[in-house]
Amino acid sequence: MSQVFALVTPEEKAFFAKRLADLCTEKQEKVIELIPAFEAVVLGSVLKLFRNRIRFNALYNFMLAKSAPQEDVAKLLSSGKGMPDYELMYRYGEGMMGILLPDKKSAIATLLGGQLGAKSSTIIKGLTLSFALYGYRLKEFDYDALRDFKSFGDYYQPIKNDFYALAPAKIQVVLIDVLVLKEVFKGENTVNDEPYSPSDDHSVRNYKLIAGVVIGILIVGIALFFGLRKEEVIVEKEETDQIIPIDSLTKLNDSLTQAVLDSVKTRNDSLVTLVWPDEKPFEVPKESIVVAFHAYASDSTVTAPLELTCTELDFSDKTELLSSPKTYLFKRIVDGMNKFKEVDVQVQVSSDKGVAIAKEHAYVVKNRLVGEGLNPKRITIATLPNSLNNQIIFSFKKRSSLK
Questions:
Q1: CA 193 to the chain's CA centroid
Q2: Which of 136, 167, 202, 229 has CA 20 to 30 A from 326's CA?
Q3: In degrees rounded to 5, what are phi and psi of residue 283?
Q4: CA distance 315 to 322
């Protein structure tokens, strides 16, 4: 089987392996052995997007909003003397994992470390850098695949069996279970402890395949008989709590245009200049919650939680999407939280349309934070009583204050 999916070229693999080996004090030969497994994890997480339009939208939005670390990738994959900015690449990679691999990183790190005999630091850093490399490759070389949901599926469908070529045989079954890929490979031969082979024709598997095809034909026939209805998002039940809804593709361009207009408008408002440690100064409106959050995060003597009612964001009554995204707000909050890693946030939302809409709005806000590079594990959501009408509250807590 010819291998198509790769994060690094054969020439780049040695450079990447040496950088990661030096970074984690791991043997270079071991890192070279791990790289195909990293690529299999990335490809497996990408294949999940075939059946989750919402998460595809999140990836699309992330790719538009975030610049790929081109210079640092070049340094990572070369023998030059310059060192890449690993912190920048970790943030970029964590943002990608927040969309493609939510809440799976620890399980996969345990699996790879235990089965392939590598240090946990090597696995975690290797996975994070691999997702950063995927974001770079997608942005720089495969961007056409992101045109729309169908194009993305058409692009990756022909190479999905590369997963079997990349994943070591002894972890294929478990890795498929962890990534919940059974539905993606449904109708194909089930993997076992031996490498995948198209000639594997055990009778039990054939019966399952035939039954699956017959059921599939019946379902398609019923669907055609009653007429095509509005397409529904296919989301597996066990992943419901991981859904991160965002602006639809049809509204995305309008949202980005509005974000530019908002940015121009803030220039005409009364601004205040702030700075995070070791970062460049930035300006935000004086009434922005960023100002109070900056003071809270920067003051180590303040340990009590901080609740800030946000009047800078509102939702459209027609679309239930952010009608004024205020990109600066999400970017500056995430920049601050990535500087002060002991701070977590709870997004609390109320809606006069009920709890379901309030929860949807909370996920939209959460997704924008994730899209800017914040680890989703540091964000929780909650709904507020309807009597509060339409409110968005950011509740910040320092972990030391939670003990």
A1: 30
A2: 136
A3: -115, 140
A4: 4
- The mean pLDDT of 352-373, rounded to a whole number, is 88
Q: What residues contact 138, with CB distance under 8 A and at least 6 apart?
A: 63, 145, 146
Which tokens hold the place of 71?
A: 């210079």
| pLDDT digit string, tens, across residues 76-118 | 998 777 888 999 999 999 999 988 988 788 888 888 888 898 8
Two tokens at 1?
């089987």
Q: Which residue has the tokens 């000639």?
A: 199
Query: How many of the other CB atoms lie within 10 Å of CB of 143?
Result: 11
Q: What is the pTM of this model?
A: 0.50
Q: What is the CA radius of gyration of the chain?
A: 23
Termini Cα distance of the chain:
54
Structure tokens given for 22: 């030096």
Q: Are 373 and 87 in contact (CB under 8 A)?
A: no
Instruction: Give the pLDDT confidence of 186-213 residue by residue, as tens digits.
Output: 755 433 333 333 333 344 344 444 555 5
Q: What are the structural domains, with CATH classification, of the chain? A: 10-181 (no CATH), 244-402 (3.30.1330.60)
Token pair listed for 133: 């490399």
How many Cα neighbours within 13 Å face the side chain of 174? 15
Contact 380, 346 (CB under 8 A): yes
